[in-house]
Amino acid sequence: MNDVKTRTLQVPGARLHYEVRGTGPLLLMIPGAPADAGALAGRAAGLSDRYTVVTYDQRGLSRRP
Q1: pLDDT at position 49, please?
Q2: What's the distance, CA 54 to chain centroid?
Q3: Stated pTM of the model
Q4: How far is CA 20 from CA 8, 10, 40, 55, in A?
Q5: In terms of C-beta distances under 8 Å and separation of at least 24 residues, what long-range contacts does 60-65 make, across chains too?
């Protein structure tokens, strides 16, 4: 499944960018190094047939100021 929903969430003092793929139990993927949502795109796509996979941009990187 390659359907990616790109979203933003406005919170006090920040705008959070995240991506959602698939359906099923929620799986939040957190990169272990400074990275944005795209760093986990391949693995997220591979898991999206079994999970709702959420990836996000860490603060100060890419689409998250």
Answers
A1: 95
A2: 4
A3: 0.79
A4: 11, 16, 12, 7
A5: 61/34, 61/35, 61/36, 62/17, 62/36, 62/37, 62/38, 63/8, 63/17, 63/36, 64/14, 64/15, 64/16, 64/17, 64/36, 65/14, 65/15
Question: What pLDDT score does 54 carry?
Answer: 93
**pLDDT 10s digits, 24-60:** 999 999 877 777 777 888 889 999 999 999 988 776 6
61, HSE (Cβ side, Cα atoms, 13 Å): 13
The three-state (H, E, C) secondary structure of the chain, written as one string: CCCEEEEEEEECCEEEEEEEECCCCEEECCCCCCCCHHHHHHHHHHHCCCCEEEEECCCCCCCCC
